[in-house]
Design goal:
single chain; Rossmann fold; 20 strands; alpha/beta; eight-stranded parallel β-sheet; 3 domains; 18 helices; 549 residues
Length: 549
């Protein structure tokens, strides 16, 4: 018996005490009563011991397993990147180092065999938080007339950007404001303009504008004019729009030498009116440049510079008061303007400009689902028709914006959609001015649910009824992508937005790789930083992602 005990203690894992054996099963330790002769018999017939547990123990172990349920693998938060290749799926809590290059679905998309591949950047929150702040416009020290006008339009709570920027503008300071699309930037400058016009009466005998809002397109000018007229309906202020495309008589007709408080204009029409001496900018008390990144690009930069050279812009807040007052300046954009510092330095002291930018500037919107599909050029039509048909059935009445890079593509695609009996509207810059009038407004009212357009519809236009954006042609720059994607998920929008992009060319793939990298690393898109190098008073307003939307 002593030799048997010595044999068992040498070969059997566990601890022996008399006839009891301590066994470990998973995370459970059992004390099993096993006769020593059975242990000896097991070792004598095979190399490994076979220990039979009582049936009662087996049943107990099974009950514990059923009680605890299946073993769950811990997940890293919500699903961030979804794709057909499981090894490239990423969850929101998965980390990636600052200098680490993540594995990309789009890495091999330049290969001819990649057609049909896709990936989706999923929503990380249901929709844009609204209201963004707990304050009301009453807390911003506004004139009661202005607050009443806002209340009449059921605008009661300021957005986060409005809350931060309006008080600085009310103090008379110049502001460079950059915030993500759909954050209510139009009211950022309209409210201070109304406040100034009410509290500082102008010369009743002058027909020159007291405030000027410069925008890059007729459609945006129509929208801003409409908002301004609704706000000033009971204030006794006049609002006028000046746009090009109608020849000299059409432009001259827009200036009838009557009182003019707010002028909304496009650069081309305004420059022509200044050359023809139809107006002067000497009486300006406020100048707003909306969609500044577009106004300062190569298309408009010379025209904008010519307008600024004829405007007396204040450098200090004290210069906007008194008989020799100068114009206060607000530069507004959804992507941070490039080259604006070099141009503004010719007209004003950059040291007196406050730069206000949100933390989410140049980030992908977390509440918008974004899908990228690698397709052959010949497959784009069938993919689009299938998407529009499905949208009409499942989400009847919701708006769809289909973006193309050229006017020719818009017209060609329109003919294809006509052949498939898909009702739509078209909008591009090559249309005559009379034809463009009211197209976007008609789309907003639901007269058609599909608008095929160029980037003319991607800048600043309020599109709360749009639920889907389709990039039929992938945008040429990351700035254009942000602007297009910004047509959905806006402040006040009741529907969850989504963006679908067709990726065809090699240069498209390079941009997609930058977008996917930014999404996986949860950082801003690259190459979009400001080029302003002069010292500027910076009000870099940051908040937690849960508080900022």
């Amino acid at each position: 018996m002593r030799s048997l005990r010595r044999f068992v203690e040498t070969h059997l894992p566990g601890h022996i005490h008399e006839e009891h054996v301590m066994l470990t099963v998973g995370e459970i330790m059992l004390q099993v009563r096993v006769p020593l002769f059975r242990i000896a018999l097991a070792f004598s017939t095979s190399e490994l011991p076979v220990i039979r547990l009582p049936r009662r123990t087996d049943l107990w172990l099974e009950s514990r397993e059923n009680q605890n349920g299946p073993i769950l693998t811990p997940r890293g938060g919500k699903l961030l990147i979804s794709t057909r290749r499981r090894e490239l799926i990423q969850f929101s809590r998965d980390t990636c180092g600052q200098w680490e290059q993540p594995s990309l679905v789009s890495r091999g998309w330049k290969h001819s065999q990649s057609h049909g591949d896709y990936f989706t950047i999923n929503r990380q929150q249901a929709q844009r938080r609204w209201p963004e702040t707990d304050d009301t416009f009453h807390s911003l020290d506004l004139n009661p007339t202005v607050v009443s006008a806002l209340d009449a339009l059921k605008i009661t709570s300021p957005t986060w950007m409005q809350k931060q920027t309006i008080p600085i503008l009310l103090r008379g300071s110049n502001v460079l404001c950059a915030s993500e699309t759909g954050s209510g930037k139009t009211l950022v400058y309209l409210i201070p303009i109304l406040q100034k016009l009410i509290t500082q009466p102008g010369d009743s005998g002058s027909s020159d504008p007291r405030s000027l809002i410069l925008v890059p397109s007729r459609e945006l000018a129509d929208q801003v004019t409409s908002v301004a007229r609704r706000l000033t309906a009971r204030m006794g202020l006049t609002v006028r729009f000046a746009g090009g495309g109608r020849g000299r008589k059409g432009i001259v007709k827009q200036f009838d030498k009557s009182k003019l408080d707010i002028l909304v204009a496009t650069p081309g029409a305004l420059v022509k009116a200044l050359k023809w001496n139809e107006l002067r900018l000497d009486d300006l008390c406020f100048l707003a440049l909306d969609e500044a990144d577009t106004l300062f690009d190569d298309t408009f930069s010379e025209l904008v510079e010519e307008i600024l050279m004829q405007t007396r812009i204040a450098s200090l807040a004290s210069e906007v008061q008194g008989p020799e007052k100068k114009a206060q300046l607000a530069v507004i954009g959804a992507t941070f303007p490039k080259g604006v510092g070099q141009l503004l330095s010719k007209m004003t002291d950059l040291g007196g400009i406050y730069t206000i930018k949100s933390k989410r500037l140049h980030f992908l919107m977390p509440h918008v689902r974004q899908t990228f599909k690698k397709l052959r050029g010949s497959d784009k039509i069938s993919e689009l028709v299938e998407l529009l048909t499905k949208q009409a059935v499942e989400k009847h009445g919701s708006g769809v914006l289909v973006f193309c890079n050229t006017s020719k593509t818009v017209n060609w695609l329109g003919y294809i959609l006509n052949d498939h009996d898909i009702k739509h509207s078209r909008l591009h810059g090559q249309m005559p001015a009379d034809m463009r009038i009211g197209i976007f407004e008609s789309f907003q009212k639901g007269h058609s649910n599909v608008l095929v357009c160029t980037d003319i519809a991607s800048r600043g236009l309020d599109s709360c009824r749009v639920e889907t954006v389709v990039n039929y042609d992938f945008p040429p720059t990351l700035q254009d992508y942000l602007h297009r994607a910004g047509r959905v998920g806006r402040v006040g929008s009741e529907c969850q937005g989504s963006v679908v992009s067709f990726v065809t060319h090699a240069w498209d793939v390079e941009l997609v790789q930058k977008i996917e990298t930014a999404a996986r690393k949860r950082c801003s898109l690259p190459g979009m930083e400001s080029r302003i190098k002069e010292p500027i008073q910076t009000n870099d307003l940051l908040k937690d992602d849960q508080e900022r939307v």
